Amino acid sequence: MINTQNSQEGERDNLHPSSIPETTYVDIDLRGEQHQGSTYAEPSVRLSPITVPPEPIRQPPMYHISVVPVPHNEEELFKIFTYRKSLKFFIMIDAIFILLNCFLSAPFSLIYLIALCFVAFGYVGTKEYKPCYIIFYIVYLIGRALSEIVFMVLIPETFILVLGMIMFAIDCYICHFAYKFYMLLKTASQETIVMLQNGWNPNRDARIVLY
Asked: How many domains does the chain fold into?
């Protein structure tokens, strides 16, 4: 019996070596270092945040649509177009007569050349739908009408009176026509002017108007 107990105590001693006391625990932390302590400390767990990439923002598709402006009043466009055509015709006739007088009346050629410059302003303003240029032509027509009156007063002959009356009536008529075209351009909207300047043409025949 005594031998049996001694053998059991020997086995216990083998299970518990004397180099490590019973109350001593070995702890290994997260860095892998060993230390001795009287109590056991659980390893601390460090949670590092995980960065999740944001989802890309989906934008709706964009479509580029070219919009062609629709004329608000086609009759207005047609009226301006016909007045432009008629005034261009009158200005060209006026320029032809000025050139003839320039060659036939050599002493007054400088005056006719100055008059031709005003006529050129009127032609450009009518062609390009620019009312500021038409003003120069209207001023020229008023000045020419007044000069006809001066000639009739200074030279009261039958031929001069008849010719002066005819020229005065023609100047007043063209001046009135140019003023009507000028007012059409001034009262028209900017979209209408832009469409005419971009080459708008009517679908029907545009004839020369005389009133």
From this structure: 1
Find out whether 82 and 208 touch, Cβ atoms under 8 Å: yes
Helix and strand numbers, DSSP H then E, in the chain: 6, 2
Quickly list DSSP for 138-162: HHHHHHHHHHHHHHHHHS--HHHHH
- Give, for 25, the enclosing helix (H) or strand (E): strand 25-28
Domain presence at residue 31:
no
Q: Does the residue 124 lie in any domain? A: yes
Around Cβ 96, how many Cβ atoms within 10 Å?
10
Domain range enclosing 95: 76-197
Nearest CA to 208 out of 79, 75, 82, 78 is that of: 82
Using CA atoms, how far apart are residues 152 and 100, in angstroms rounded to an integer? 22
Q: State pTM to two decimals.
A: 0.63
The backbone region for 114, taken as left when phi is positive above 0, alpha when psi lies in -120 to 50, beta otherwise, is alpha
Is residue 35 within 8 Å of 27, Cβ to Cβ? yes
Whether 102 contacts 113, CB under 8 Å:
yes
What letter would DSSP give residue 71? P
- Block mean pLDDT (10 aa), the chain, length 211: 45 46 46 48 60 68 58 81 94 92 81 92 95 95 94 89 92 94 94 91 80 72
Q: How far apart are CA 8 and CA 1, in angstroms?
A: 11
In a domain, 178, yes or no: yes
Q: Evaluate whether residue 95 is within a structural domain.
A: yes
- Please give the Cα distance from 6 to 4 (Å, whole number): 5
